[in-house]
Amino acid sequence: MTNRIVLFCTGAICLLGGLLALFNPLAASLTAEQIAGWLFLFAGVVQAFAAFREGWSARAWLTGLLGALGILVGVSLLARPLEGIIALTWLVAIFFLVSGAAKVMLSWPLRKMPYFWLLLGSGTLSVILGIMILAGLPATAGIVLGTMLAIDLISSGVALIALGLATARGS
Prior knowledge:
Layout: H1 3-23, H2 25-54, H3 58-79, H4 81-107, H5 116-136, H6 141-170
GO cellular component, one term: plasma membrane
Protein name: HdeD family acid-resistance protein
Organism: Pseudotabrizicola alkalilacus
């Protein structure tokens, strides 16, 4: 599969996911929180099992503690979804800030390219979304998380589709 097809398909998936999240932001927030809870729980169980099989070494104890922490976080997210949404909203805000800054920095070497502005805009939008999320916490976490996720997915999807189309024209 060529790079342009991967970029285009990834962009289309991001765009579709963003549109679905935009139509129901609370459901998107709850879904993301529940998925995270199950992932933490599953990873914690696997880590704890690996530690148990390893024996009584210091590494096994550390692995077991990390597994127990994963289980605790997973159970906590699954048992208390509204508090979990607030915690995940903090994490998503930090992610948006960091990923937005990275996109902005990655865009600068492409200043002379016509698609520079799309990457720069996507990065700037991610930073703005991170700031907006942090400003509204905790009162608006349920709606804001899903809405911000939708906007970022749509923005990233459009940028990736454009990059895929640009790559197709350049080859």
